[in-house]
Design goal:
alpha/beta, Rossmann fold, Immunoglobulin-like, 11-stranded mixed sheet, 5-stranded mixed sheet, binds S-adenosylmethionine
Length: 421
C-alpha cells in the first residue's frame, strides 16, 4: 500500500505529561457532585494531554472531532469588540487568537502524525474520528489516516460548503472544507435516523403525484432522507448569536450532525483542538460527556463561558504540565482588586465595584478557597451583545463560607485573583 513518507516521520514516543486540576466549575451553585471528572476541559498541548489521558481512556472515547490548524500559514486573531458591526471594521478590537505558521510541510506533518496515532489509540472499538481540514493538507492527511486506520475504515469524505466573500481573482473561490471520517473498527455507531433531513418540497410533490417516479423505489417521505456527503451550513458570521469572536469557530449545526450520527447519549465525545468549544457545547446539549483540550487560555476561557451559558453540567479544568502555576496571566491579589470586592454575610452576596474593574468579561467565586483547586461556585459573564457583567453574586451554601476567593478576567485576557477576609 502506498504510504506517505517525510524525513522527520517517526513512531511517536511518550512525552512527559501530568494533569493538574485547576478548577472545578459548579454552574451557578449547582452543588458539589461526586463525579466532577465526568466532563473535562484541559488547557495545554494536546500531545502531552493525550499521553496523560491514555492510562484512563485508551479504547474508551466514542467520538473524536479534530479541527487542527489547516497549514494555511496565517495568523488568526480573536475579535473581542462588542457587537462586531461589519460596517465599522475600525471599531473591531483584536486579541491573540492562534497561529497556523509552519516552517515547512514536514513540520506540519510532524505535528499531525503523532496526534492522529494517539487519537486512534484513544478511540473505542466502535468509535469514529472526524478530521476537519481543507485543501492545504487534506490530501496528506488522507494518506496518514489510511495508514493508521486502514483504507477500509474510511467512513466518508465529507465536504462542507459555505458562502463568503473572498479576495481571490485568479482562481475559483475556495469555499469548502473536507472532513475525513474514519471508524476504529468494522462495527461502529451510526444513528441514521437521528440525522435524517426533510425531503425537498419538489421531491415530495413529485412522489405524491406519481408513485412511479422513483422507478419502483418510493422514498419514505415522512421519515426524511439520509443526508449526502456534502453539507451546506453557513459559516458563523459576525451577527450570529452563537458567534464568540474566537477565530475559525465552526457552526453548531455541523457538530450537531456529527455528534448525533456517531455517538449515543452518555458517550464520551472528545475534541483535542477545541477552540471556542463548539464540540463540548453541542455534546453537553445532547447528553454526551465531553473532553476538550486547547493550548491557549483564551480558547479555554471562551469554552468555559460558552458551556456555562448553555448547560448546567459541572466540569473540571485541568492544566497539562502546568503544576503549581496559576492560569496564564493571573495576577495574584492586587490591593486594587481587594478594594473593589466586598462580601455581605447577611445576604450571602459578593459585590464588585465595576468601576475598579472596567471591561470585565467574567468573574467567579470560590467560597472556601483552599489555595490549590479553585471551586467555582457561582459565575457572572458579560452578556454578548448589550449590558454589563452583573456586579453581585449570591453564595447560597452559607455554611460552607470560609476563605472567599474571587477570580476575574478582563476582555483583553488579563486576570486577577483576590481574597475577601
Ligand atoms: C481551527 S481552531 C478550532 C476551532 C474550533 N473547532 C471551534 O469551533 O471553535 C484550532 C485550535 O487548535 C488549537 N491548537 C493548535 N495546536 C494545538 C496543540 N498542539 N494543542 C492544543 N491545542 C492546539 C488552537 O489554539 C486553536 O484554538
Amino acid at each position: 500500500m502506498p504510504e506517505l513518507y517525510w524525513p522527520g516521520k517517526a513512531t511517536p514516543t511518550p512525552v512527559p505529561a501530568q494533569l493538574n486540576t485547576e478548577s472545578f466549575i459548579y454552574p451557578q451553585g449547582s452543588g458539589y457532585p461526586s463525579d466532577i471528572y465526568r466532563n473535562r476541559l484541559l488547557w495545554g498541548d494536546n500531545l502531552a494531554a493525550m499521553w496523560a489521558l491514555l492510562a484512563e481512556y485508551e479504547g474508551q472515547i466514542d467520538l473524536i472531532y479534530a479541527d487542527p490548524p489547516f497549514y494555511s500559514n496565517r495568523h488568526y486573531p480573536a475579535r473581542i469588540g462588542r457587537v462586531e458591526d461589519s460596517r465599522r471594521p475600525d471599531k473591531w478590537r483584536l486579541a491573540e487568537g492562534y497561529p497556523d505558521h509552519w516552517p515547512d510541510l514536514d513540520a506540519y506533518l510532524d505535528m499531525l502524525y503523532p496526534r492522529v496515532v494517539l487519537m486512534h489509540r484513544l478511540l473505542s472499538p466502535t468509535g469514529s474520528l472526524y478530521l476537519h481540514l481543507d485543501w492545504h493538507a487534506n490530501a496528506y492527511a488522507r494518506l496518514i489516516l489510511d495508514e493508521i486506520f486502514g483504507p477500509e475504515r474510511l467512513l466518508n469524505e465529507i465536504v462542507w460548503v459555505y458562502h463568503g466573500p473572498s479576495p481571490i481573482r485568479s482562481a475559483f473561490n475556495r469555499k469548502h472544507d473536507t472532513i475525513l471520517a474514519y471508524t476504529r473498527g468494522s462495527k461502529y455507531t451510526f444513528n441514521v435516523d437521528d440525522i435524517r433531513t426533510p425531503y425537498d418540497p419538489s421531491t415530495v410533490k413529485t412522489f405524491e403525484s406519481s408513485r412511479k417516479a422513483g422507478f419502483g423505489k418510493v422514498p419514505d417521505l415522512a421519515r426524511g432522507q439520509v443526508p449526502e456527503d456534502w453539507w451546506y451550513f453557513p459559516v458563523v458570521a459576525r451577527l450570529h448569536n452563537e458567534r464568540t469572536g474566537y477565530p475559525t469557530q465552526k457552526p453548531e449545526a455541523l457538530l450537531e450532525r456529527i455528534i448525533l450520527a456517531s455517538s449515543n447519549p452518555g458517550d464520551m465525545v472528545a475534541d483535542f483542538f477545541c477552540g471556542s468549544g463548539t464540540t463540548p457545547v453541542v455534546a453537553a446539549r445532547h447528553g454526551r460527556r465531553f473532553l476538550a483540550v486547547d493550548k491557549t487560555w483564551r480558547a479555554v476561557h471562551t469554552t468555559r463561558t460558552r458551556l456555562l451559558q448553555v448547560s448546567d453540567l459541572p466540569f473540571c479544568i485541568q492544566g497539562v504540565n502546568q503544576a503549581g502555576k496559576l492560569p496564564e496571566g493571573v495576577t495574584d491579589l492586587s490591593e486594587q482588586a481587594r478594594d473593589g470586592c466586598e462580601f455581605d454575610p447577611r445576604k450571602g452576596q459578593v459585590y464588585l465595584n465595576l468601576e475598579s474593574f472596567p471591561e470585565l468579561d467574567y468573574w467567579e467565586v470560590d467560597p472556601a478557597w483552599d489555595g490549590r483547586v479553585f471551586r467555582s461556585f457561582t459565575q457572572a459573564i458579560r452578556p454578548r451583545r448589550k449590558g454589563n457583567v452583573p456586579h453581585s453574586l449570591t453564595l447560597t451554601q452559607t455554611s460552607d463560607i470560609q476563605q472567599i476567593c474571587v477570580r476575574l478576567m478582563g476582555v483583553n485576557g488579563e486576570q486577577f485573583q483576590t481574597m475577601i477576609e
